[in-house]
Write a structure and sequence with these properties.
Chains A, B: It catalyses: (2S)-2-phospholactate + GTP + H(+) = (2S)-lactyl-2-diphospho-5'-guanosine + diphosphate. The structure is a homodimer. By secondary structure, chain A is an alpha/beta fold. Chain A is built from seven helices and nine strands. Chain A has a seven-stranded mixed β-sheet, sandwiched between helices. A two-stranded antiparallel sheet of chain A has the order 8-9.
C-alpha cells in the first residue's frame, strides 16, 4: 500500500532542541527515526513515499517529493494525487513495528486512524480521496468528527507503538525500551543510555570514551 | 478472569497535585478512574478485585482487600494467593476499554504484558504463580527479562488505551479525547474543558457558573 511519510528535514523535533548538541545532531536523530519508519512500512508490505518540506540532505531509502506547504495541506494533496488506498504515517513513530502497521493496512473502513498521545493523529489510512485531514489541535477528535460528517466509516487502531510519537525527552525512554531498529542504536552510539533516577526511567548522555 | 486492580486511596496521583484544588478533589478523580477501570474489566468478562494500600473511603464496585506493602510485593502476593490466571490492571488506565482488556485476556503466553508509556508496565496477566513482578524503574524491560529468565513465554499487547496511564496534566488531554465513561464527565462537572493553546491541546479549568 502506498504510504506517505511527511518529513521536516530543516528543523525537525524542535521540542528536543535542548536534548541535542545542535540542530545538525537533532536532524541526525530525525533521519534515524525516518529510516526506522520507512523500514517498518516496507516490512509491513507498504510502499513508502516521503513528502518533505524541503530537499533532504541525507540518503533516504524511499522516493522523496518536496511540498513546503503546511502539513495538513500537503497530506491532503498527497492523498488526492495518489492511488488509493493511501496511508499516512508520521516520521517520528520510532516504536512502529511491521505488525503495528499491518494492523492499519488490514483494518476496514473508509478511514482508518491511529491516535497519537496528546490528542493527535499519527496514522491516517484513506480509502477515498475526500478524507478530511487536519493535524492542528485535537486532531484525532477532529478527524473522527469530520469523517463521520462526510458520511465516511471510521475505524481506529489501538496501538501504543503508533501512538508514541517522539516529541520530548521523556519519550526517549520508550525509544530505548521498545525500538528495535536504528534509532536506539543511534542514541547509544551518541553516548546516551537509559538510567533510573529515583525510580523513574530517564535517558542521560555520557561522554564517549 | 480474576483481575487485581491495585489502588492507593490515600495520596493517589500525587504528580497531579497542582492540577486539583486539594487532595480530596484529587482522590475524587482517582476514584472516578478506578470506577472506569473496574467497569471496563467487568464488561470484558473479568472479575475485578481491588487491592488497596488502605481502607477505601468511598463506595467501590468490587471486593476490596487492604495490603499496605509496596506495589510489587502486594501484586506478587495477590498473584500467588489467588486462582490462576490472574490479571493485574493499573487503576489509572482511564482510557481502558473492554475491547482493549479482552485482547489481554485472549492473548496466549505464561505472561501477557501491556506496556505503559515511559518504560512502565500497565497490565500483567499471569498464568503461573511464579511470574516475577517489579514495578520499579524500567519495569517493562525488567518484566520481559525476568520472565524469560524464568523460562516463561511472554506475549505483549500493543494498546494505546492500556499504555496511557494518567500521571500528569498533559495526560488529561487524552482522557478528554478518548475516555467514554465516568472520568471525562467527572472532569467536565468540575469545570475542566479541552482547549487548544497555540495549536497544542491542553486541559483548562473554568469557574463553574
Amino acid at each position: 500500500m502506498r504510504t506517505v511519510v511527511p518529513f521536516d528535514p530543516r528543523d525537525p523535533k524542535s521540542r528536543l532542541a535542548e536534548f541535542f548538541a545542535d540542530a545538525e545532531e537533532r536532524r541526525g536523530f530525525a533521519y534515524a527515526m525516518l529510516a526506522d519508519v520507512l523500514g517498518a512500512v516496507r516490512d509491513a508490505g507498504g510502499d513508502p513515499v516521503v513528502v518533505a518540506t524541503a530537499p533532504v540532505s541525507r540518503p533516504v531509502d524511499a522516493p522523496v517529493t518536496v511540498d513546503d506547504r503546511a502539513l495538513s495541506t500537503a497530506v491532503a494533496a498527497a492523498i488526492a494525487d495518489g492511488p488509493l488506498p493511501t496511508a499516512v504515517v508520521m516520521a517520528d513513530l520510532a516504536l512502529a513495528t511491521p505488525d503495528a502497521i499491518r494492523r492499519v493496512f488490514a483494518a476496514s473502513g473508509d478511514v482508518v486512524l491511529a491516535p497519537g498521545s496528546g490528542g493527535g493523529t499519527n496514522v491516517v489510512l484513506a480509502r477515498t480521496a475526500d478524507v478530511p485531514v487536519s493535524y492542528h489541535g485535537v486532531s484525532f477528535r477532529d478527524h473522527v468528527t469530520a469523517a463521520e460528517r462526510a458520511g465516511l466509516t471510521v475505524t481506529t487502531v489501538d496501538s501504543f507503538r503508533l501512538a508514541a510519537d517522539v516529541d520530548d525527552a521523556s519519550d526517549l525512554v520508550d525509544v530505548f525500551v521498545h525500538n528495535t531498529r536504528r534509532t536506539r542504536e543511534w542514541l547509544i552510539a551518541g553516548g546516551w543510555r537509559l538510567a533510573v533516577d529515583d525510580g523513574t526511567p530517564t535517558v542521560v548522555r555520557e561522554p564517549n570514551d
